[in-house]
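Form P-L/3: holo structure prediction, ligand pyridoxal-5'-phosphate.
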Amino acid sequence: MNVNRDLFDDVMVPNYNPSSAIPVKGRGSRLWDQAGNEYIDFAGGIAVNALGHCHPALVDALTQQGQTLWHVSNVLTNEPALRLAKKLVDATFAEKVFFSNSGAEANEAALKLARRYAANQFGTGKDQIIAFKQGFHGRTFFTVTVGGQASYSDGFGPKPERIEHLDFNDIAGLEALISDNTCAVMMEPLQGEGGVIPATPEFAQAVRALCDKHQALLIFDEVQSGAGRTGDLFAYMGLGVTPDILTSAKSIGGGFPIGAMLTTTEIAAHFKVGTHGSTYGGNPLGCAVAEALLDIVNSPEILQGVKQKEQLFRVGLEKINQTYQCFSEIRGKGLLLGAVLTPTYHGRAGEFYAAALNEHLMCLVAGANVLRFAPSLIIPDEDIELGLARLAKAIDKVLCQST
Ligand SMILES: *Cc1c(COP(=O)(O)O)cnc(C)c1O
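OUTPUT (holo model):
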């Protein structure tokens, strides 16, 4: 069997368009493809591989759990899930945890819980959900409709109703729209897919205050910003604004699929036995890996390291920009950073991405105008330097080709 990119077109549903290089091995912040080429990884599997590839502690947790107990369903509970939930509760505002397998499912649970909470507490009519343009919350029909890009939810028939979108960071817009009929406001404290756009502290505070005023729940989607990525365990901690419901996935599993919804006891009480569920959610394998990850990431050394590495990235990107003047802004926080292309290069982030891949650097885009970096939280400093040197080469090639 020829296991190559052509086989993808033969046998896979064509909803993705992966590049022709197929990774076969990863260690730390490096990847190797079938031809043995080595890549520096600034993408982290889209902000997932928080401890790089094959971190020994995670491999250990997975293999030990794999030799002990794999799956029991939620008819039973299991030790890794209980330990992980306890550690998440101890580390955050939350008092209760629901486990899922992905970010979308954590958000689906959050949205259903908010609707059920409002219906139970206030009766019918309090069902409006306010979210933001360019926001991204996953691909289930509810979450993709709450997401701020209509093109992702169009074309699938009737959508879940009473969902409205505002400009991100627009306090006046929210003041005008929110009312006692608002059930929840959902936002990313740092928009990832939408272009690495931070919520301003004033905005986050205003959202909190308006939600309180109208008894609406504030849902923070921290699927991309959470689990240490911004240099705080969760981004809400850095913003100083506490949500009512928080969702986590991506980095929390370090590469093993797991998601979590965190909330208070009072709100959680509205998911009674049978109200919601998942066959795999909270399975021993995922929870064992996430517990090992949390033990490592939730430490001053790692979180401080993220802030130091952010500086290395910022200084390096500014230096590249002094030579090429292709970025109008470096934004984001911790190791979720976006280099915004100047208007000359708008619409062309994909070309920079492809050129970087040619130089054996994996990075990401966030829309057509932003290069995004979401590497391992413990990427070695020398890998940052080597990767940035490759990025400079790639940019040089793109700019040469366009003159
Ligand atoms: C990736 C992402 C999701 C969706 O997570 P999946 O695991 O792909 O379902 C939801 N919200 C945010 C902010 C994300 O970045």
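COMMENT: Residues 102-104, 107, 136-138, 188, 192-193, 221, 223-224, 249-250 surround pyridoxal-5'-phosphate (CB under 6 Å).
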